[in-house]
Every structure is written in C-alpha cells, then in structure tokens.
Amino acid sequence: MKIAVAGTGYVGLVTGACLAFKGHDVVCVDVDEKKVERLRSGDPVIYENGLEEVLQKCIKDGTLSFTTDYKSAYKDAEVVIISVGTPEKKDGSANLIYINGVADQIADSVERDCIIIMKSTVPIGTSDRIEARIISGLTHPVKVELASNPEFLAQGTAVENTLNPDRIIIGVKSTRAEKVLLKVYKNFDAPKLVVKRHSAEMIKYASNDFLALKISYVNEIANLCELTGADIDEVTCGMGFDPRIGSSFLRAGTGYGGSCFPKDTKALHWLSNIRGHELKTVRAAIDVNESQKLVLIKKAHSFYENFTDVNIAVLGLTFKPNTDDLRESPSLSCIPYLVDDGAKIKAWDPVGAENFKKFYPDEITYCDSISDTLEGADICFIFTEWPDVKEMDVSEFSKKMRKPLVLDGRNCFSLKEMKNKGVTYMSIGRPVIKA
Ligand code: UGA
After folding, report:
1. What's this model's pTM, rounded to 2 decimal places?
2. d(CA 374, CA 397)
3. Cα(215) to centroid(ligand 1), Å
4. Catalytic machinery residues
5. DSSP character for 88?
6. Same domain as 247, residue 174
7. Nearest Cα to Cα of residue 406 among 383, 388, 387
8. What mean pLDDT do residues 62-89 have?
9. Helices (H), 341-383
10. Do residue 77 and residue 213 come from a single domain?
11. CB of 106 within 8 A of CB of 112?
C-alpha cells in the first residue's frame, strides 16, 4: 500500500520504517530539511535499538523515502498517518497545534480517496474534530475518513514493539476504514481489536495512565517499606505471582519520566476536569511521581545539609536505559539542586550526555567511563539502570570514591552484593546498608 507518514519523531519514524519493512511503500514527511537529509542517508537521528538496520534496509530496497514536500507525499497516498507531537501545554492539556497544521496540509494535498490514521496521542474526541477540519478544507472532490490507531511502542524497544505488537487497536466508524486498516496490518501477527474511535483514543490514555499509576503505587509502597523494615523487591516479587496483578511494571524507583507518562497523565486529568469530573487516582499518580523524582536528594540531605563543594558522581542521565531521551528524567529534577548549591559534579551516560550538555555545558564534567566518574566522589547518584552500571564491579565504589555514599534510584544492585563493601548504600524501598 502507498502510505505517507506525517512527522518523523520516535513514533512516526519507527512506524514508517516498520511498515516499509513489512512490505508497504512508505514516504515520511518532516518540515526539518536537515533531519530529512540525514534520514535519507540512513542515519536514524535518534538512538533506538535496531532502527538503523531497518531504516537502511528499507531505503536500499526502495520501500522507504523521506521528504519535506508534503504535497507530493499526500497527493496519492491510500493512507496518511498523523504522528506529530502533542506536547503538554502549561495547563496540562495536549497542544494540538502540530496536528491541526498537518490536517490542513492533508486537506490541501489529497487527490484520491484515502484513510487518515491518527497515531498521535490525542484527547478523546479529537479524531472527530480533525476529520471535520480536513473535510471542510479539501481542495479535491475525494472521500476522506479518519481512523484512530494508537501506538504502544516504548522507547528503547520501539522497533520490536512495532514489528511484534501485543495488540492493534483499530478505532473506526465505517467498514471501509476497518478494511483499509486491516490491510495495513495484514502482515502483523497480533490481536486486532476494532472499536469506536472514542474508545480507541481512550484505550491509549487509560493504558498509559494505568501503568503510571502502577509505578506510583509501587513507589509509595516502597517508601513505606523503608519506614517499616520491609524490602520492596521481596514485596513486588510476592505480589507479581498473582496473575491479576502481574509482575511487570512493579519496579520501584525514583519516578517515571519520558515523553509519555508525565504528559498523558496530566492530559487525561485535564480532560476529566473540564468535563467536571476529578480523576483522583491519576492525580495521585502525578503527585506521587513529582515527589518521587526528588527522593534521592532527600536521602542525600540526611547526610549533607547542602552540597557546596561536595564531589558528586552521577551515573545515568536519561529517563530509562537504551534511549538518549532526557525528557522528564529524574536527573533533570535533581541536578539543578546540586548545581545551585555549587556541588562539583561529574556525570556519565553512554548516550544521554550529549543532550545533557545542552542544559549544563560548563557546570558538569562529563566522563567517558564509570570509573573516572567515581574518582574522588563523596556521593554517587544513580538515575538510570544502564547495563554498564548493573554489571559493574561494585568494589569500584570504595576503591574510587572518597566517602562512599551510593544513592541508587533504580535498585541496580542486590543488597547481598553491596554488603561489606565499605559503602553506605541507599536504594528505593530496601534497608540501608551502612559502610
Ligand atoms: C510508555 C509505554 O510503556 C508504552 O506502552 C507507550 O506506547 C509509550 O509510553 C507511549 O505512550 O508512547 P516509554 O515512555 O517509552 O513507554 O517507557 P517505559 O518503559 O514505559 O518507561 C517509562 C518510565 O517508567 C521510565 O522512566 C521507567 O524508568 C519508569 N518505570 C517503568 C518504572 O519506574 N518502573 C517500572 O516498573 C517500569
């Protein structure tokens, strides 16, 4: 099928590449000329497992191309996929400025009957409004219909999630649109659920917000474990055996980040508010997460009144491993406190350091190795569970640090491993190990 994709962010780029990989003829559109140039040369621009290989194969096979010329891309596409960003506005609502812009371009360009697929995460009811906007702006006598088809890819595993999804949600209002979407996903071996458009839009928010809630719940229980002498790892292990609870997304830590959970919890809460309904559980998840992001700073304060001239090592800057994305990362919440106090900070992150330099080019020394980062440090903060951290030799802490206090926001090491290592080790929801 001839498919055009609007937007080459995480979702658009991975979706376009994977649809090409599955045999469709795909053109991806972006306004950024420089980015399009890099993508054409096979450079994925973002760090995402397996993306480069898929991208280069499809470009070579001639099934995937990139352009800034939206008219030529949308003109004769059977399907146009909208996957531009819906950033958070100051009031927490989703900003639809980019969606509206693409809708107008589609209306101005399509010259054949087509189905528009909404992949961006949008407030419930947006598909109706965008469909009406496109139809009213059409410059050719064609039949256009919109389908809601949310994505469930996670950063770091985006290609795998897209090629082998656990479900495909098809939100449509006609069998015509249903047939087209089933054709798009013909080569995907996953349950396909055909639902109303509003339900499809809600499934996306309800899924993300439930996962955010699950994490905040576990983090609250973890904080209580610390006060009661229980161990969150043992607690979640015991909980996870119950199939009604499940063992995934029960990892306690220093809060969820990224471009999705923080934004989608706030957007659904905002949406419910304007309908006169208070989404209390989601509000609680948001509040718990805000304070959880600062939990390592609170722990550090039990040792240091302020961080002036304290030598700090930071391991991991990204909101999770296998991505270079810093959005809503707990490191970005905590590091400003350390910088403001005049701490001497060294940081390591295998792919996120370059992006972090844009925020703090001079205030932080960026190191190439964990070992150099730890040299002479008084406190080590761990914000991301990169494999290099989880697999490191923990005797490095006492060998390299001056006063080894390790604050682990991702429970990278077992308590057994950290015992008798000459290190004070504080993690999330587990007993403290004293040096
Ligand atoms: C999330 C969802 O997992 C995807 O299903 C969804 O499609 C995507 O949002 C989206 O809406 O586009 P993502 O934000 O990439 O994906 O990353 P996750 O793996 O879900 O992690 C989000 C945050 O939660 C990270 O900061 C991670 O450290 C944290 N987390 C995750 C925990 O603290 N504990 C856990 O048990 C799991």
Report:
1. 0.94
2. 7
3. 9
4. 260
5. B
6. no
7. 383
8. 96
9. 353-359, 370-374
10. no
11. no
Q: What angle do CA 235, 240, 243 make, to 5 degrees?
A: 150
State the residue range of the domain holding 238. Answer: 203-292
Single residue among 267, 292, 317 that ends a domain in this structure: 292
| 58 domain-assigned | yes
Q: Which of the pair, 292 or 94, is modelled with greater confidence?
A: 292
Same domain, 183 and 232: no
> Beta strand 379-382 with 311-315: parallel, antiparallel or unpaired?
parallel
What the block records as the tokens of 145 is 């219909």
**Is the same domain home to 31 and 180?**
yes
- C-alpha–C-alpha distance, residues 145 and 130, integer Å: 10
Could you tell me the CATH number of the domain that includes residue 269?
A: 1.10.1040.10
pLDDT of res. 21: 97
Fill in the amino acid letter for 50: G
Q: Are residues 112 and 60 in the same domain?
A: yes
CB burial string 4-15: b at 16+ within 10 A, e below: bbbbbbbbbbbb
Domain boundary among 141, 160, 195: 195
Share of the chain above pLDDT 70, in %: 100
106 and 232 part of one domain: no
Which residue owns the Cα nearest ligand 1 atom 19? Answer: 154
Locate the ligand 1 atom nearest the alpha carbon of residue 152 and give its number.
7
Within 6 A (CB) of ligand 1 lie 121, 151-155, 208, 211, 215, 249-251, 253, 256-258, 260-261, 319-320
The atom of ligand 1 lying closest to the CA of 207 is 5
**Domain count of the fold of the chain:** 3
Decide: 105 and 82 in contact? Cβ < 8 Å: no
How far, in Å, is the centroid of ligand 1 from the Cα of 72?
36
Q: Which atom of ligand 1 lies closest to the CA of 11?
A: 12
Residue 388 sits in the same domain as residue 246 = no
Co-location of 136 and 94 in the same domain: yes
Tokens of 94: 């989703």
Query: How much is the pLDDT for 94?
Result: 87
Residue 432 forms part of a structural domain: no
Does 433 reside within a domain? no
Looking at the chain, how many residues does it have? 435
Residue 36 CA to ligand 1 centre (angstroms): 28
